[in-house]
Every structure is written in C-alpha cells, then in structure tokens.
Specification:
By secondary structure, the protein is an alpha/beta fold. 36% of the residues lie in helices and 13% in strands. The strands form 2 sheets. An 8-stranded parallel beta barrel has the order 3-4-5-6-7-8-9-10, surrounded by 5 helices. It has a two-stranded antiparallel ribbon with strand order 1-2. Helix 3 (120-134) links the parallel strand 5 (99-104) and strand 6. Helix 8 packs across helix 9 (283-291).
Length: 348
C-alpha cells in the first residue's frame, strides 16, 4: 500500500463547494450536513491509497467531520491507525478545520477490561489508545458507543466528563441510547458541567425508531443528532434493486443479512427508487436528503468505498427540499425493515 506521491493541498474552494453546515443543538459547533464515517472501507482490507483519495475528496468538497471508533476495521483499531497515517501525511496542517470523533463501547482487547461497556477503566483506556493510534492530542468528540446496563450511568458519563477535563476531548456524545436514557445522560452531564453535545443513532427510511421519542428528547434538551446508517446498510441504494451482487455487504454477510432483502422489502425500495428518479436524484441521495428533512438532525454519516460513490452521496445536498405531497408518498414505503442492528442498546 502506497500513498499518492503528490503533496496534498486542500481545494481553495472547499467551503464554496455547496456543503451546508448545521448547528449542533444549542452548542456553538457546526457540522457539515453530510459527514464521513470510517466504519467500513478504512480497515487493512482496503488499499491505503483508496482511503487517502476518499478522505482528500471529502475534505475538498467541504466535509469537515470524520467519524471513527476504536473497533473500526478490520481488524479492530486499523481504521484509526490508517486514518492517523493519512492525517499525518495530508491533514495535519488542517487540524483546526476538522472535527474528528471516536467512540468506545464494544469489545476491543482481551481480558475483563477490554470487553466493552461503560466502565471508567474501559472508556478512558480506550480514549488513550485511540489518540495514540491516530496520532492526535485530542479528539473533538468522544462517544459512549452504546448503553451499558451493567455499569452505573453516572460512571460512564463521569468518564466522558474526565476526558474533557483532561483535554483529551472537546465535546462528548452518546450513541444508540434510548430517549429515556438520553434524558438521564443529559441531566448527569449537566450537573457535572460538561454538556452532552450530540447523540448518534441509526436512522433511515427503513429504520425510523428515533421518531418515537428520541427526536423530541434531543430537541427539548438542545442536543444535536447525527444519524448513522442512513442508507440502511446499502439497502437504500441501487445495489440491490435486481438482487444481491457479488462482493456486496449482503453477499459477504457484512452487517447486512441477505434475509432482510425480502420481496416485500425490495418492493418498497424499488418504489422509493422511482420517487428518487422523479426528483432527479439517485435513491441514495434522496434517502440522505430525507433523513435531513428534520432540523433536529444535524448531520448524516455516510460510508464510501470509492471517490465516485462519495461524490454521489455528497450530491444529495443539491436537493434537500421535499413537498408535503412527496413526504406523504414516501411514508407509504418508508417502513420498518428489521435493519436496526443496534436495537438491544437503544431499547434498554
């Protein structure tokens, strides 16, 4: 794996490339409407030069937020390590233009202290490891990646508070917490003097659980929201309209169970695809725009396996408006598809 030989200089017009920025709740921070997640496509199974090209293109188009976690890969930790290598080569001069986030919550290293959860031991050790892998002095946002019912919430939130006070994180967030647990976390952190900045839940046309109460909670509490898996693990793209292609996530069993691609589900997806075409968008673009229709959603997280795929997703911001009639038609086909892999955490 090798780098591109040229020295990277960010595009002069990166903030005129059409990317809108949205305020994160009642904080002073803005995020791009579309952020880049490094869950897939940044492990050791992907050539480093492809990763580099994707990150460069994203920043050149105004994407200032890169989202990671300690266990992203494969193998665990490799996404952060690869990002750190590229950051040192290309992005260090632009550090103050970037929002870089990481998370801890799932199993990461052997033994009782590395199996995930929300203990102070695990969270703080994870943050230190992430900073070392990425070669950073601090992250902008550090998340509790999941709710841990075996650890007092006060301990988990206290660990996040400690990271801010130690200068290892500027802000803190939570991911896949229920509305009720989010409200509790807000109250605990508020009392400690470290506001909860943002919540990162799964959300898409085929996974609308946050509409039950979480959107109301973050809106009332002034917390931002950044949606991950807005394309439902690839179901809301043109990839599966005619079946399961070789090399796809479903074909490889990577975070998309082929059993979810039922005739009924695909009927809805194909109907949504027709609506997208009528809007002059790809299905993925419409899905991203739809997830951003609510002002309480600050940003959506996308993955990208190539620069071309990245460009297609980023073009979603060219048409973010929906008529009431369009939304009503979409609602008939934006139905639960069993794609919420993180339901266990968010239902506790």
């Amino acid at each position: 794996m090798t780098f591109h030989a040229d020295e990277y200089k960010a595009a002069a017009g990166r903030y005129r490339a059409g990317m809108p920025y949205r305020r994160v709740g009642r904080s002073g921070l803005d995020l791009p409407a579309v952020s880049l997640g490094l869950w897939h496509n940044f492990g050791d199974d992907v050539p480093l030069e492809r990763q580099q090209a994707t990150l460069r293109r994203a920043f050149d188009r105004g994407v200032t937020h890169f989202d990671l976690a300690n266990n992203y890969g494969p193998p665990y930790g490799s996404a952060e390590r690869n990002f750190g290598t590229i950051f040192a080569r290309d992005f260090r001069p632009y550090r103050d233009e970037l929002v870089i986030s990481s998370k801890a919550g799932y199993d990461m290293w052997p033994g009782p202290y590395g199996q995930g959860g929300g203990s102070r031991k695990y969270v703080i050790a994870s943050a230190d490891q992430s900073l070392k892998r990425m070669g950073l002095d601090y992250v902008d946002i550090f998340y509790s990646h999941r709710f841990d019912e075996t650890t007092p919430l006060e301990e988990t939130m206290g660990a996040l508070d400690s990271l801010v006070r130690a200068g290892k994180a500027l802000y803190v967030g939570i991911s896949s917490y229920s509305g009720a647990r989010t409200r509790e976390a807000v109250a605990i952190l508020r009392e400690m003097g470290t506001p909860l900045l943002i919540h990162q839940p799964s959300y898409s046309m085929l996974n609308r659980w946050i509409e039950e109460d979480l959107l109301d909670v973050v809106g009332a509490e002034g917390v931002g929201l950044i949606a991950f898996s807005p394309l439902a693990q690839g179901m809301l793209t043109n990839k599966y309209l005619k079946g399961i292609p070789e090399g796809s996530r479903a074909a490889q069993g990577k975070s998309l169970d082929p059993k979810l691609l039922t005739d009924e589900s695909l009927k809805h997806v194909r109907a949504l695809d027709r609506m997208a075409k009528a809007r002059g968008q790809s299905l993925a673009q419409m899905a991203l725009a739809w997830a951003l229709r609510d002002e309480r959603v600050t940003s959506v997280l996308i993955g990208a396996s190539s620069v071309a795929q990245l460009d297609d997703s980023l073009d979603a911001v060219k048409n973010l408006r929906f008529s009431a009639e369009e939304l009503a038609k979409i609602d008939k086909h934006a139905v639960e598809a069993g794609i919420n892999l993180w339901k266990t955490s968010s239902s506790r």
